[in-house]
Each structure stands twice: as structure tokens, then as C-alpha cells.
Amino acid sequence: MGYFILKRMMSIVPVFLFVMLITTGMIHLSSVDPAEAYLAAAHIQPTDEILEQKRQEFGLDHPFFLQYVHAIIRICQLDFGISYLSNQPVLDEVMVRLPATLQLAFGSFVIAIIVSVPLGFIAGIKKNSAVDHISRVISFFGASIPTFWLGYILIFFFSVKLDLFPVEGVGTWKHLVLPAITLAIPLIAMYTRLLRTSVLENLEEPYVLFARTRGISERVIMTKHVLRIAISPMITGLGMNLGKLLTGTIIVESVFSWPGFGRYFIEAIFNRDIPVIQCYVLIAAVLFIVSSLIVDLIQMYIDPRISRKEG
Predict the structure, then answer these.
(1) Residue 294: HSE in the Cβ half-sphere, 13 Å Cα cutoff
(2) DSSP string, 172-237
(3) What residue stretch is flagged as signal peptide (predicted)?
(4) Which long-range contacts (CB under 8 A, 24 or more apart) does 50-57 make?
(5) Which of 16, 19, 28, 98 lies closest to 58 in space, CA to CA?
(6) Is residue 217 part of a domain?
(7) CATH number at residue 222
(8) Is the pLDDT score of 257 beyond 70?
């Protein structure tokens, strides 16, 4: 396992270099001049002298390769630059907003697991039952409804009509309920159907028949054998969506005025705050890589054969 982890950690290096190439190239491919964007955010009338001064300050007068190398050195020193809008270090502002996004992502993640695992498992072992039909309705509803519309519907019924939860902002656990549910419902739809399908496929495998002929109880077969193997595709899906949850909460944070990282990114796009946009892209890539590594380690724990294959 140690060799596997080391190999995966080493694979992060070329991905990091590629992401840095993309983020650095954004400046050259974009029609927006970073110097002009900075002066516009600072409400300073641009002149040729000031523009040239800012381009030299940002290192934009250097060749692309030197800009790329300098960007790598800065990021390795955790220097993401200064926000054009607030004139504050980008990393400091991200660290202020990231806990709110982590809280929202973790809440929705827990809700999705608590609901989808038992629902998908029961729907699989009891095909065409009432639970199975309910899971199909939930999956169809969750997969088809737009996230922003679902958020507004929840606000209308539970905040405006019933006055059970706050409409926006953060503070108590009640502020977390509606945005977390809004994020969790599409995940519940996906994971429930994924687990149900996997359970049905594993019930047809020979090892289930052999276990029954050996006299092993049905409960043990279902929980220690079928569920252990059937949940593997779901874990892969969870890992793929973990990074998405941490960086893709943009719509929900906008609907519920949640002061998180995603909303900060939207504001940066509107204000052409290039250092913030570059920081967001890099953090998103790192989160996807780390979540993928975590999933692989969990898969190796569930199925030790993966470790032997990788070795």
C-alpha cells in the first residue's frame, strides 16, 4: 500500500504542472488585460503609463515561459497573489470563506450517504417492493429537477410559508438545512440508483449461491458480502463528487446567499478578479486529486485485490 500511495502522490506533480500551465495561459487566452482589470476594480482611470507600470508589476512583460515558472514558484510558496477587488491576499480571503463551503459540502455529503445507502440497498434486495418504487420516484425527481429551482421551492415552502428555516445566510444549524438538502437530493438520486443496480447484479453472482448452500444466514450474506462488494461503485461515485461538492456549490451558495468559496468565485468572475479565478481553478484541481486518492485507498481496504494488482 505504501508503494501505491507514493506512486499516486508522484502522479500529482504532472497534474499540478498542467493545471498551472492552464491557469497561466488563461491570462494570454483571455481578452481581458489583467492590468486593465485591476485598474477597473480599483476605480482608477487607466493611462498608458499606469498600464505599463502594472504590467511590469504583475510580470506580464516577461515571456510566457518565465511567467509560468514564476507562477509555479509563487504557488509552491502559497502565494496566490492579491485580489484586484479587495486588495487583500487571495489565500487569506479563501481561508475565510472555505470553512462555510466545507460545512455545506460535508452536511450534504452526510445526508446523501444516510439516505441513499439504506434506500438503495433495500430497493436492490427487495426488487419491485414499495421501497423500490419509492426509490425510483426519488431518483427520477432528484435527477431531473434543476438545483436552483429546487432551492427556491424549498425556500418558498419551508421559509416563506412555514417559517421553519432562515431564508439566507449562516449562523445556526437551521441555516444549513435547506442548502444542504438542496445539494444532497441530486446525489441521493444518483447513489440510490447506482447502489440498487449494483446490488441486483451481485445477487446474480455465483458467490451468493455458494454462500447460501453453505448455510450462511441471509443477513450475513447481504451485509457482509453483497453490500461490501456492491457499494464499491458508489464509493467511486462519491469520490468523483466530493471534489465537485467542495468547488461546485456555486449555484446553491448564490441562491441561499451562503458566504462560501463558490459565491466568492462568482463575484470574481463578474469583477474580472483574475488571481481569485486562478486560485479557484488550482484548488479545484487539488481537491479532485485528493478525493480520488482517498477513494482509491478506501477501495483497497474494501477489496485487497486492488492493492495486489497495483503492486
Answers:
(1) 14
(2) SHHHHHHHHHHHHHHHHHHHHHHHHHHHHHHHTSHHHHHHHHTT--HHHIIIIIIHHHHTHHHHHH
(3) none
(4) none
(5) 28
(6) yes
(7) 1.10.3720.10
(8) yes
What is the spatial distance between Cα 176 and Cα 166, in angstroms, rounded to a whole number? Answer: 9
Q: Which of 6-15, 198-207, 252-261 has the lowest mean pLDDT?
A: 6-15
Alpha-helix runs per DSSP H in the chain: 2-29, 34-41, 48-57, 64-76, 90-125, 130-144, 147-154, 173-203, 206-213, 218-220, 227-230, 232-247, 250-255, 261-270, 274-302, 305-310
Lowest-pLDDT choice from 80-89, 156-165, 207-216, 244-253: 244-253
Answer yes or no: are the C-beta atoms of 83 and 93 closer than 8 Å.
yes
Question: Does some domain include residue 242?
Answer: yes
Computed on alpha carbons and rounded to an integer, the radius of gyration of the chain in Å comes to 24
Residue 233 within any structural domain of the chain = yes
Show the domain range for 135. 100-269
Residue 281: all three cell numbers together: 481553478
- The position carrying cell 450474506 is 221
- 171-211: per-residue pLDDT in tens? 788 888 999 999 899 889 988 998 998 899 888 888 888 88
What is the C-alpha separation between 143 and 189, in angstroms, rounded?
A: 6
What average pLDDT does the segment 227-254 reach? 77
- C-alpha cell recorded at residue 234: 458508489
82: DSSP letter: B
Please tell me the total count of domains within the chain.
1
Per-residue confidence (pLDDT) for residue 111, from 0 to 100 = 92
